[in-house]
Amino acid sequence: MKITVKNFDNQQVREIDLPEEIFGYPYKEHLIHEAVQAYLAGLRRGTHKVKTRSEVSGSGRKLWRQKGTGRARVKDLRTPKWRGGGTVHGPVPHSHAKDLTRREKKNALKSALSRKLADQEIVVVENLEVGNHKTRELLARLGKLGIAGKKTLLIDSRDNESLTLAARNVKALKTVDALAVNVYDVVDRTVVIVSEDALSRLVEVLAK
After folding, report:
1. CATH number of the domain at 2-45+98-206, out of 3.50.50.60, 3.30.2350.10, 3.40.1370.10, 3.40.630.30?
2. Tell me: the pLDDT tens digits for 39-62?
3. What is the pTM for the complete model shown?
4. Where are the alpha helices (DSSP H) in the chain?
């Protein structure tokens, strides 16, 4: 399995081999769905909280006697039936995290990448060194690759600060280190652009 390496002028530089066990991995929609759900669940802070009747401010004194008033029996001001009272079965802080094994996460990423490759939505470039942090110049270079305006994932080293600065003002672009690629980012973006070095590091991790 081969893929073309291009430069920013959209010219073919060479071809490199891609491991079949990664980029030829079968498409498993359910596994990808589980990985995406686990990622999104991990982003939730789970700090939402309401007060129960024991936490609401107010006296615990019984408002009137149990019988003889003609009114419904009631205990105190903090009862959930009254305005300002406690909340019954409301949300409390808890973790929304969903557990996936390391193997499942890797296989889900392999499946997502192989689908992207099959749909010709992965572009490998020599490098993603842009020279400066100007967004306009980055967009011009991406335009030469024929992907201007598309939701794009740029995979390179986190040390490439110029790329990060140039892309951060464009909502359609997202930069990520090769060792931090996740399934959600891959399936959420229309095109994946990866530098040759970043691709090698990504393959090395997924092959373990």
Report:
1. 3.40.1370.10
2. 999 999 999 999 999 999 988 899
3. 0.82
4. 20-23, 29-43, 102-118, 135-144, 161-167, 183-188, 196-206
